[in-house]
Amino acid sequence: MKPRIGIFGGTFNPVHTGHMIIAQDALEVFDLSKILFVPCYLPPHKKVSRLVTAAHRAAMLEKVVEDNPDFDICDVEIRRGGTNYSIDTIRHLLALYPEHDLYFIIGSDSLMELNQWRDINELLKLCHFVTFVRPGFDPRKVSAKTLKLKTGFRRDLMKNLVALHQIDISSSDIRHRIAEGLSIRYLVPNAVEIYITEHNLYKA
């Protein structure tokens, strides 16, 4: 069996406790050798309010992965600049890790949007998608029709649906709390809270 690497992409604006719990769960559930966090430069499918620079977002990630040998950061999308697409990143990582299977980690909110991703049919063949259920998500409502993907893809996607620690934390809520002067303690790792304060990020 090939060694497995988890790929966890996102804006991480900012990275929060929920992200880290999902990463740890993925590592254990799918017997991954490591998790690569891949911060994007610009998100291709949505506009994010108060998006801080890629350098700040990568620096916050560095703070939280530095003491975990199973976690690492891949800055390929930041170095590439502009709008990045997952298909290009996965092709790049397959060239870097030709002897590995790649497991692409998403949340259930992204599952229903996969049909909008660039070259999604090819992407679903290149790597394994693993979906972590968010609070309020009902997997019984997922069908080939609602996914707007081929039936075979739906079967594979549902096989790797995980409902473990459903942590209802979002980066948008954290940004809102900071703008309102509210505490973000326990919502983000301590090192991230310190970094945000030191650099005066996400203020209104």
Distance between the termini: 50 Å
Q: CATH superfamily membership, which one?
A: HUPs
Work out the count of structural domains. Answer: 1
Q: Which bin fits the share of residues in helices?
A: 40-55%
CATH class: Alpha Beta
Q: Give the beta-strand count.
A: 6
Describe the model:
- This protein has 204 residues and is α/β, with parallel strands linked by helices.
- The chain has a single domain, classed as HUPs (Rossmann fold, 3-Layer(aba) Sandwich).
- It has ten helices and six strands.
- The chain has helices spanning 17-29, 54-65, 76-80, 86-96, 108-111, 120-126, 144-147, 151-159, 171-179, 190-199, and strands at residues 4-10, 34-39, 71-73, 101-107, 128-132, 161-162.
- A six-stranded parallel sheet has the order 3-2-1-4-5-6, sandwiched between helices.
- Helix 2 links the parallel strand 2 (34-39) and strand 3 (71-73).
- Helix 2 (54-65) packs antiparallel against helix 10 and helix 4 (86-96) packs parallel to helix 6.
- It starts with a strand and ends in a 5-residue tail after the last helix.
Task: State the gist of this model.
This protein is 41% helix and 15% strand. It is an alpha/beta fold and 204 residues long.
Secondary structure elements and pairings:
Elements: E1 4-10, H1 17-29, E2 34-39, H2 54-65, E3 71-73, H3 76-80, H4 86-96, E4 101-107, H5 108-111, H6 120-126, E5 128-132, H7 144-147, H8 151-159, E6 161-162, H9 171-179, H10 190-199
Parallel strand pairs: 1-2, 1-4, 2-3, 4-5, 5-6
Helix pairs in contact: 2-10, 4-6
